[in-house]
Amino acid sequence: MSALRGLWVVPLLVMLGALSPARAAESTVEELWHSSRGYGKKATQAQEKLKAMGAQAVNPLLELATHVYEQELMDIMGFLGSTGDEGMRVLASRLDDPNPTVRFAALGSVAGLCFMSRLEPGEYRVGDRETVVAAMYKGFSDPLPEVRMEACVIADCLIPDPEKVPQVLSGLLVDASGPEHNWLGDYEDTVSRYASRAMVAYGAKALPVVIPLLHSDSPAQLACSAEVLGRAGEEGKKHLNDLLLLAHDDSPEVRAAAIRSLINLAGDDTRVIAVAQARLRDVNWGVSGSVRWALERHPELVVYFKSDLVRILRDESEHTWTRSEAAELLGMCRPASRDVLLALTWAMTEPDESVAHAAAKAALELSRAPKEPAQAPQGE
Q1: Rounded CA gap, 371 and 336, in Å?
Q2: What's the pLDDT tens digit per position in 206-248?
Q3: Alpha helix stretches (DSSP H) within 173-218
Q4: CATH of domain 306-380
Q5: Domain assignments of the chain as residue spans, ordered by start
């Protein structure tokens, strides 16, 4: 009888809210969340249970997010992005929050999901695309640079609204602001760079916007225009003269972008070869490195640059990394001429291990390669 009499306590506690379903769910989510913040089997199981709760976990996590440290807030927002469309809509609604950290964490979570859905489409999915695109547009005009950068990441991944987004990105190309703390050291992490990457992702779809930018005074806009033209195939070739002009620009960023696109579009054109040979000796390491980078992707063109690459390899005043790259490229040179083999043999005795190793690897590649006649460069 005493056990039966005690049954009245349960509905009373529910009425009082002590054991309400909402409170119980909140307590469960909080427990699972704290258990998930670790390593091992227990943490993995807690993460799986939270994901299985889906939309039920959203409100308790939001409540938890109101009284945690900044890093844990970022983690909670990141997890909400994996809880489905409801979590995505909640994140989008947080873009009006007066706290800039909340806005950054919210859109960063959305952008992270977009990025992972492109990287591993079978594992990650962007469901409510309309909500995501609306959040992207709101992020473009946010006062915090980090939020604008995350909006550019979404544009880069989803490539939405090709009639509208490139126009917005063209304005962000001149936005040189960035995070207060530069976590990438010497690399200049700015809104402009993120906008440029997103614009390039649109390729030929962005041509109506970028072609007028070929006459801009902004190096960032010029460089972005050159990059887009390099991805535009036959349409890009129509602007070969513009790119040849940009390859002599005062800005190293513009020269580097132009030469990459020229080699990509028409690397066997005699005019392009002449300009690329000059840029391979550019005083700016980023520009000369862009030529080497482009040649790695077009090994059939290396034969036209063998004399320049041999000079770089033999020049002990050049940076070690530059000489190693020159050796690697010479390993792609077909057919293997005597001067190339002599330069590689000499470099194999270098005291610098990275140069010697690159030269030995290149010589081995040449020894295995079939003999092929070199093709003469094409004219205009």
Answers
A1: 8
A2: 999 999 999 999 999 999 999 999 999 999 999 999 999 999 9
A3: 191-202, 207-210
A4: 1.25.10.10
A5: 50-160, 306-380
